[in-house]
Amino acid sequence: MNPLDERLREHYAQLAPQEQRIADFVLDHYNDLASYNSAELARLTGVSKATVSRLFKRLGYDKFKDLREELRTLRQTGMPVADNRDVVQGNTLLARHYQQELANLAHWVSTIDAEQFGQVVRALGTSARVFVLGMRNAHPAALHLRQQLLQIRGQVHLLPQPGQTLAEELVDLSPEDMVVVLAYRRRPKIIRTLLQALRERQVPTLVMCEPQAQAIIELGTWQLCTPLDSVSAFDSYASANSLINLLANAVLHEHLSQGRQRIHQIAELYEALDELEHR
Q: Of 74, 84, 96, 133, which residue is the least packed, with the fewest Cβ within 10 Å?
C-alpha cells in the first residue's frame, strides 16, 4: 500500500471540499499526525468526525487508530519525540543518520525536473529583482540562498525585514521580479495567502518545500522539493541546503563572466574594509 501522503496527492482533485480541508491539514502536519485522534482532527479542520472517518476508510483504513499505528511504525518525524535507542546507541544512530541523509539526497536528485530547474536558474539570473522569503525553520536557508546569490548578482533582497510586515515590501513587485518562498513544515499560515496574492499580481514564484506540502506546491510558478526525513526527533535540512548550493552554482555558471567580475569586486572590498581573516 502506498504511503498516506502519496494516496492523498493522487486523490486530492477528486475529494470533496471538506475532505480537501482534512487533506491539507494532514499534508501540512504529516509527521505530527500520530499525536492526534479523529475527534481532534475533526475539530482542527472544522469538519465532522464522520467526515474524517469516511475519508480514511476511502484511503484503506478501517479506523483512524490504524493510521496512527502505521505512522508510529514508520517513525515519521517532525514532532520532537526521540526514541531511547537514539540516545544510548550512538554508533547505530550515526549509521542510520548517514543512510537517511543519502536517501534524502537520492530522492530529490532523482525526481528533479531538469527543464523546470533550468527555468528557475534563468529566472534567478535575469529577473529585475529577486526576493527571498523564509520564516521559522526556513529562515536560515533563506539567509544562505540570499548570501550566495548576492555574490553573483545585485538586487537580491531578504523578506521579511526584522519587525516589519510584508505588505510594504510587496506592493511594488511586478512580473519582472521573482520571489523565492522557502516554506518547510510547520510553516506560518500566511505563506499560502502570500503565494495566492503573488499569483494574482502575476509575480513569478519559486516554492521550496518538502514533497508533502501539496497545499502550497500548486501555488508556485516553479516547485523544488526536498525531503526533510530524519532518523530521530528533528527534521534534517541537509538536502535543502544541498539544493541551494546547486542553484547558486548553476546561476553562477549561467552568468559566469558577470558573476566572476562581481566576485572579484566583492573581494577587493573585503580587502579595503579589512573585513575577513586571512588565516
A: 84
Residue whose C-alpha is closest to residue 244's, from 136, 124, 106: 124
At 133 the pLDDT is 95
> How many whole angstroms separate alpha carbon 225 and alpha carbon 208?
6
Query: What is the rounded distance in angstroms from the CA atom of residue 151 to the CA atom of residue 146?
Result: 9
Question: What is the helix (H) or strand (E) element at residue 279, kind and residue range?
Answer: none
129 exposure class (CB count in 10 Å sphere: 0-12, 13-18, 19+): middle
**Omega before 227 within 30 of 0, i.e. cis:** no
Kindly tell me if the per-residue pLDDT of 81 is higher than 70. Answer: no
Residue 270 reports pLDDT greater than 80: no
For 260-271, what is the mean pLDDT? 79
Selection from 63, 106, 107, 97 nearest residue 77 by Cα:
97
CATH class of segment(s) 4-74: mainly alpha
Cell numbers standing for residue 244: 541551494
